[in-house]
Amino acid sequence: MASLSVSRHNHLLSGLLPARHKPTSRPTRVRMSLRDDGPSIAVVGVTGAVGQEFLSVLSDRDFPYRSIKMLASQRSAGRRINFEDRDYVVEELTADSFDGVDIALFSAGGSISKKFGPAAVDRGTVVVDNSSAFRMDEKVPLVIPEVNPEAMQHIKAGTGKGALIANPNCSTIICLMAATPLHRRAKVLRMVVSTYQAASGAGAAAMEELELQTREVLEGKPPTCKIFNRQYAFNLFSHNASVLSNGYNEEEMKMVKETRKIWNDKDVKVTATCIRVPVMRAHAESVNLQFENPLDEDTARDILKNAPGVVVIDDRESNHFPTPLEVSNKDDVAVGRIRQDLSQDGNQGLDIFVCGDQIRKGAALNAIQIAEMLL
Ligand SMILES: NC(=O)c1ccc[n+]([C@@H]2O[C@H](COP(=O)([O-])OP(=O)(O)OC[C@H]3O[C@@H](n4cnc5c(N)ncnc54)[C@H](OP(=O)(O)O)[C@@H]3O)[C@@H](O)[C@H]2O)c1
């Protein structure tokens, strides 16, 4: 049986990714995580791209826990995972998996969340769900901790009272990390987003497919197309989410609807075009903003420099702006190309370019920041 090893020094997708996609080692620190006064936690979908990142982020942030359950499908049951120098065995997910669990981090897809999320809540577990299953449910907070922490202030772990909290879509999180500080100052009336989304957003198998296809194309062989139904290497295409009757795909509509819910602003106008690009990890987004109040680019740059979880990379002289590679395995969302939109009068519009690691801030890190607020 294959084993996975995830620790602070060897974190992320070990056994799933080629060495060059793994992050570099981090310095040794004394661990404070395993402690009697921490919550009991469960990671659902632990063998996947996000699940592995959950373990990495838990370790990096010294998230306290008294026990941790590793859950996946029957396929992976019995697989061994080394986490923080202890061996764990992956268990098959069942409703009973949540007995005695305070916090469950879900990343096994929407159908699994729909089936097992409510079962966990019934057992008193607070579920932080990475899928889209509950995001638009009015009773479920949709939270980016830097943006709308107040939406979940009534929920705490370990009270015996279960609850669901949804993690927004990865593209929404990355976009709003940059757009929200500007929105707070000048109020966004309209936002136009174009995304350049990485393979990792479609899971570990998509990353493997991109790597395999790249090798196959270079060797003159026909590319293997299992996850995506067309050539991905040396190509780009409209996001693989289903296209709806209004012509938008589901990924694009998530950005529209989730922004309104997170900003608690049903009037904000959002439109998006979501594209898959042959990048292994980290999404990029071009974001055009129209404001109610004037906001010049220097003020916007200062606001972004001081925004939590945001770093500005905006060096016009050397043409250095954010790239997916530079933000891979990083917590912060990078913003650059900050400039006045010439097509709008006065200082009512800005263009920015944003990059963020969507497995990290777009998924696992955001969820664990939520979990930290439950303690
Ligand atoms: N990748 C991203 O950047 C990203 C960002 C935000 C949100 N998300 C969301 O997070 C979820 C997982 O995405 P991912 O990219 O990590 O996918 P992934 O790499 O394909 O991993 C899927 C995980 O789900 C588990 N799973 C599948 N069927 C299961 C079942 N019947 N019971 C229990 N576990 C099951 C798999 O376990 P086995 O090993 O047993 O198959 C695996 O651990 C999705 O809802 C996705 O939309 C992903």
UniProtKB/TrEMBL annotation:
It comes from the Eukaryota. It comes from Vigna radiata var. radiata. Residues 40-155 form the Semialdehyde dehydrogenase NAD-binding domain. It catalyses: L-aspartate 4-semialdehyde + phosphate + NADP(+) = 4-phospho-L-aspartate + NADPH + H(+). It is an enzyme of class 1 (oxidoreductase). This is aspartate-semialdehyde dehydrogenase. The keyword NADP applies. NCBIfam families: asd_B, PRK14874.1. The lineage of its organism: Eukaryota, Viridiplantae, Streptophyta, Embryophyta, Tracheophyta. HAMAP family: ASADH. InterPro entries: Asp_semialdehyde_DH (IPR012080), Asp_semialdehyde_DH_beta (IPR005986), NAD(P)-bd_dom_sf (IPR036291), Semialdehyde_DH_NAD-bd (IPR000534), Semialdhyde_DH_dimer_dom (IPR012280). Its EC number is 1.2.1.11. It holds the Pfam family Semialdhyde_dh.
